[in-house]
Design goal:
Elements: H1 3-10, H2 23-30, E1 37-40, H3 47-53, E2 61-65, E3 81-84, H4 91-97, E4 103-109, H5 114-118, H6 144-150, H7 153-162, H8 169-180, H9 188-195, H10 204-220, H11 222-236, E5 237-247, H12 250-262, E6 270-271, E7 277-278, E8 281-283, H13 293-298, E9 306-312
Parallel strand pairs: 1-2, 1-4, 2-3, 4-5
Antiparallel strand pairs: 5-9, 6-7, 8-9
Length: 313
């Protein structure tokens, strides 16, 4: 099927649940074989999944992972499609349960979906005064509110400095610990009031976004999960198979970039007996692909997206 026909159909995939980011670039990056086996690790509203299915023949297969219960409402009624309600850190295990050991392509959009941001009860956004939840998988017990209520000062410093890259992480942790003695910090507005002395003037939104990002990463163990996923991809991909990943913050993108380039997270290139670099991947794009002005204008949440593509050697 011609790409222009498929991309024309993609216009119908945009909905209020989630706008698929870098859709055309992602599908092109996968270099889909009609009879191949593909994995969408972040199913969400199914935007990218539908675009992948549009290029598969009757013999092709798509397996989609999502740990969010809400994603089930978007399951695609297609015999070629299988939905797996699980964290993608368990990709090998669940694919094996379905009789799959090798695949032609793996895709992931690592961002929080528009649906999750816009659901006031999920606690991802500073726009709503609600319980600080932030769980992508509601079957898990740890919430952002529990972190703020129970973590020791040194652990709070760790997550705000590492995951939020905040220079005043120590002061932020001190304010949280001091204030929670009087009243538990469980609601969005109360939390923002508590940390107000730390928020730089005229940079309120950026600072709060970094604070919420740090809490969300800790709640969902996002960095550990991403590492576990990446380590499994060389064994899962067939030679010539594509790994296509979209990241939204520097911590994720750095891990993806290093692993695709060297096969490890320290970015240390190993060499064989002849001095050749030993790495499981060939970089398809050395520089990250980013959204154009038109996409950013129609979907502001795509502005920080970075797409990287690697091919299994």
């Amino acid at each position: 099927m011609k790409l222009q026909i498929i991309f024309l159909a993609m216009e119908n995939l945009i909905n209020s649940y989630h706008n698929p980011v870098l859709l055309k670039e992602s599908i092109q990056g996968l270099q889909i074989h009609p009879e191949g086996i593909y994995v969408d690790l972040t199913f969400g509203a199914g935007g990218h999944a539908k675009a992948i299915l549009a290029q598969l023949s009757e013999k092709g297969r798509l397996y989609a992972f999502d740990q969010d219960e809400d994603a089930k409402q978007n399951i695609i009624p297609d015999e070629r499609f299988t939905f797996i309600h699980a964290n993608f850190r368990h990709i090998k295990k669940f694919l094996k349960l379905h009789g799959v050991e090798k695949v032609n392509g793996i895709f992931a959009d690592l961002g929080v979906s528009s649906h999750q941001f816009d659901d006031e009860h999920r606690g991802f956004s500073i726009r709503f005064d609600n319980l600080l939840d932030m769980r992508m998988d509601k079957r898990k017990s740890l919430t952002a509110a529990e972190i703020l209520s129970t973590y020791e000062s040194y652990d709070l410093i760790r997550i705000f400095s590492q995951y939020g890259e905040l220079p005043n992480a120590k002061r932020l942790a001190q304010l949280i610990v001091a204030n929670r003695e009087n009243k538990s910090i469980t609601q969005t507005n109360h939390f923002i009031d508590v940390i107000k002395p730390c928020i730089p003037r005229q940079k309120e939104n950026k600072y709060l976004a970094q604070v919420f990002q740090a809490l969300r990463i800790e709640v969902n163990q996002e960095m550990e999960t991403l590492k576990e996923l990446l380590l499994q991809t060389p064994d899962l991909l067939l030679a010539g198979g594509r790994l296509v990943l979209i990241a939204y913050h520097s911590l994720e993108d750095r891990l993806v970039k290093r692993f695709m380039r060297s096969g490890n997270f320290e970015d240390k290139l190993e060499k064989d007996f002849f001095g050749n670099n030993v790495t499981p991947f060939r970089l398809v794009n050395r520089k990250a692909i980013v959204p154009g002005e038109e996409e950013i204008e129609t979907n502001n949440r795509s502005r920080s997206a970075k797409l990287r593509i690697a091919e299994k050697i």
